[in-house]
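The instructor's notes for this session suggest beginning with a concrete chain rather than abstract definitions. Hand out the sequence below and ask the class to guess, before any prediction is shown, which regions might be ordered.
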Amino acid sequence: MESGKDAKSLKWNILQAMRRLVLAWNRITPVTVAKCFAKARFTANIQEVEYTKAEECEAAWAEVKKKFDVNETSFSDFVLTDSQVSTCCPVLGEISAENI
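After discussion, reveal the predicted structure:
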């Protein structure tokens, strides 16, 4: 590796870095994800989930309301507070300065 030429090729601007990131992200396959989970010792065994009854949630919420003085908020309003929050962005086609 020649120090002058190769060192310059390692410098990226933000747009180049983002493009490389998108390329790398799009190369991740379901097999890769499955191998990561297997390596972390997660299993594919799905167990039954026991759900809490609504009455128990309402009773617990009544205690929270007393303790933290949030009487004007219902349990369902509290649970749905962040239901409209975006947690991901749509897939971008070609990344350009206009869509950043």
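Then share the key points. Residues 20 and 26 are 10 Å apart (CA to CA). The radius of gyration is 24 Å.
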